[in-house]
Amino acid sequence: MVTRRSLLVAMSVIASLGTGLPAQAFEFQPYEPSAVSKVIRSGGAVVVHVYAPWCLQCHAQASILSSFAGDRSFDTIRFFKVDYDGQKDVVNELGVPRSTLIAYKGGKEVARMSWGTSQEDVVRILKAAK
User: How many helices (H) and strands (E) does the chain have?
Assistant: First the structure.
């Protein structure tokens, strides 16, 4: 007989197993300049999304990005999100409008796209970072 307690234990075990993806896969971290700079300098693959919650293009880009959450070919990319409204200093330093994706690889910027909302636009940025 299955008790409520055993069901809860089983559910927590299943939840702890997650999806099998690395913790960072398509998990956007808040943009913290020193942390992002460290990853870029290390030569790691990085994608930065300049995002505003009220921006329709930002939402479209985020939706496309989330559709690739299970795609293991992008697991090595670290993702960071710039708050367009709350991080104006970063926005100015990057010299970008909202709704921008920037790819870094090998310690340097390799691709940039603003306003693009097609899957092809977003994939081009992801592939540039790989």
Answer: 5, 5
Kindly report the backbone phi and psi dihedral angles of residue 36, in degrees, each rounded to the nearest multiple of 5, phi listed first: -65, -45
Structure tokens at 26: 């398509």
Domain count of the fold of the chain: 1
Domain that holds residue 78: 21-129
Q: What is the pTM of this model?
A: 0.79
Q: How do residues 68-120 score in pLDDT, each as one tens digit?
A: 888 888 989 999 999 999 999 999 999 999 999 999 999 999 999 999 999 99
What is the CB neighbour count within 10 angstroms for residue 127? Answer: 13
Return d(Cα 115, Cα 110) in angstroms, integer.
17
Q: In this structure, what CATH number is given to the domain that contains residue 114? A: 3.40.30.10
Token pair 């909302």: residue: 117
Q: What count of other Cβ atoms lies within 10 Å of the Cβ of residue 107?
A: 13
Give me the helices (H) in the chain, please. Answer: 4-17, 33-41, 56-67, 88-94, 119-129
